Amino acid sequence: MSGDRRSLRASLGARRRRLSAAERGRLALRVAHNADRALHLMAHWRIAVYAALPWELDTAPLIALASRRGCRIYLPRIDRRRASRAMSFVPMRGPRRRNRLGIEEPTGSLTLGARWLDLVFLPLVGFDRQGVRLGTGGGYYDRAFAFRKLRSAWHAPRLVGLAYAFQQLDHIAPAAHDVLMDAVVTEEGIIRCTTG
With the CA atoms of 136, 138, 143 and 144 taken in that order, what torsion angle do they form, in degrees rounded to the nearest 10? Predict the structure, then answer.
């Protein structure tokens, strides 16, 4: 991992952790509203949303809104084998359990391949206008959506980051494996990425 990415993760992560619970809740509601207003969530869309950890932007308001719109919601589930970095998408219903990283995952056996999703909301630590996403360093999303790099015209599913506005950076040097985002939604609105 590059030192620059490591230091960016540390500084942006610390800033996220300093937000009060009330501020996190208020901003999560604004992000959900902005996502719906900009993306026009439609009934029957297959949407993947992450189950937020306490320091991440809370996705509960967005999940509730997408459910009211009739979207079919999926949560990511990582392969249980430690050496694997594979991720699948499971309908968000029924019981859940925490994985080895502490993230809630559905326990159901039905999965949907990443190619068949319509829209994916991604967690991130930082981002830039070119669509480069600074994640936590596990590479799960980049592996799941690597097929998008092979396409020249059709880039489904749409990849949309969820972030606080302060997580935007002027430039992040892309790594060879990075899959670019199409947009990022913050409490201030939507940022359409130039190369995603």
Answer: -70
CA distance linking residue 163 with residue 188, whole number of Å: 10
Phi then psi dihedrals of residue 99, to 5 deg = -85, -175
Please enumerate in sequence order all residues whose Cβ is within 8 A of that of 145, keeping only pairs 6 or more positions apart, or say none.
Answer: 114, 120, 157, 159, 179
The closest alpha carbon to 137, from 123, 158, 151, belongs to 123
Name the pairing type of β-strands 46-49 and 119-122: parallel
Which residues on adjacent β-strands are paired with residue 158?
119
Phi, psi of 87 (to 5 degrees): -140, 140
Separation of alpha carbons 73 and 75, rounded Å: 7
- Residue 43 CB partners (closer than 8 Å, separation 6+): 69, 70, 71
The end-to-end CA distance of the chain, in Å, is: 23
For residue 120, the cross-strand partners are 48, 159
43-94, pLDDT tens digit by residue? 999 999 999 998 899 999 999 999 999 999 999 998 766 556 778 899 998 8
Question: Whole-model pTM?
Answer: 0.91
Q: Which CATH class is domain 3-192?
A: alpha beta
